[in-house]
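Protocol step 4 of 5: obtain the predicted structure for the target chain.
Materials: sequence only (see below). No template structures provided, no constraints applied. The aim of this step is simply to have a reference model before the mutagenesis design in step 5. Sequence pasted as it appears in the construct record:
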Amino acid sequence: MSNPTLLSPPTKPGIRRLSSSSATFEELALGPSVVVPPEHMTKPSNAHETAAALELAKHRLAEKEKGPIHGQITPPGTPPKTNFTDQYAFAFDIDGVLIRGGKPIPQAVEAIKVLNGQNEYGVKVPYIFVTNGGGKTEQERCLDLSRQLEMEISPGQFICGHTPMREMAQKYDTVLVVGGEGDKCRTVAEGYGFRDVVTPGDIIKDNKDTTPFRKLTDDETNHSRARNFGEAEIEAIFVFADSRDWAGDQQIILDVLMSKHGRLGTRSESFDEGPPIFFSHNDIVWSTSHQLTRLGMGALRTSLEAMYKAMTGKDLISTAFGKPQIGTFQFATRLLQQWRKDTHGINAPPRTVYFVGDTPESDIRGTNEFNASDQCENQWYSILVRTGVFQEGTKPAFQPNATVDNVLDAVKHGIQREVDKNTKTIVQQLSEQQEVIAEE
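Step 4 output (structure tokens):
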């Protein structure tokens, strides 16, 4: 394990700077960290202040809700002078907005540079990433995006679809976790505090006849844990990431759903004794390197509902997190409010949050519905880009506040809107002052 480099100001005190070329998940899990491209290790880039401040804000939020994590975070004290605006912020989806097929969308790097102060106004704007992508920890996603964009980024800037699932770790003992590559989802779940996590591979290893057309590879067998499922009761099912084997995973999920109290090999007569099932998001499709959109977790959920109905005659009751669910936007608001309190001494969220997404059914719908709800304390403004799921010539199912070609245009649109609002306010104030003078 490499030793993290700790730099003196202008870096944030208490923040470890880890090289994106050598950082490990274990290092990132030890405390507040920023992932840094190797060329910026000796001198912080313009992205450092945003990444570090949001990392500390997220850790402070965690301390408020659950108590100290990896040592008490130093209170922020008097906010330092900064050229950051506290009036507005940006929130980005990742796939189809910043990244497509594992590679940056051409305008993505420039858009982030503009937010980091490389604009005609010299203003810096805070930004976070809100993604429905699952199967990886926030730390792993941070490493991926830092390497892809070659930019300083912190885990504190990420909100994943399965992030809210951590709050259920104390509620259930034995849980089935589905999706993702290899054993990664088990690692994520255990990192969230789930005590007894089983996977489809564990179940197949115990009984190879569970899935007639799927046989475990040698690597899968080695990573699967031996267990007698005749003596285990699965209390909940969590689909953390997209399934890599729809047929096998759906067979196992249905077996558990239709069982008596989560005990495999049994079948409920009433079909109301099985455990609850949770999905980290509900996107039917998502944007990849393929020219057409590909099926996502929402499609798996729809398929399971249809099969459950056909086999039991009953509707499957399930719960989805991520966008467009309101909890994701509430957490993002709390994070940005903590950031604003730390950096500007104002205990309220930024006045406006610009959400940039490519999927009308999740990104735009979630933003609009949250903005219209009584849970929203500020304004959430939706911007739809044409680089992902949504394509020109189609009518989005949920109308955004603005539609632009790409993420750079989205950033410019938001900043210009704020400049225009400020100009209008100044003109109005001058007009009111002149009226008072005339009356005197």
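Step 4 remarks: The chain has twelve helices and 17 strands. The first helix runs from residue 25 to 28.
Proceed to step 5.
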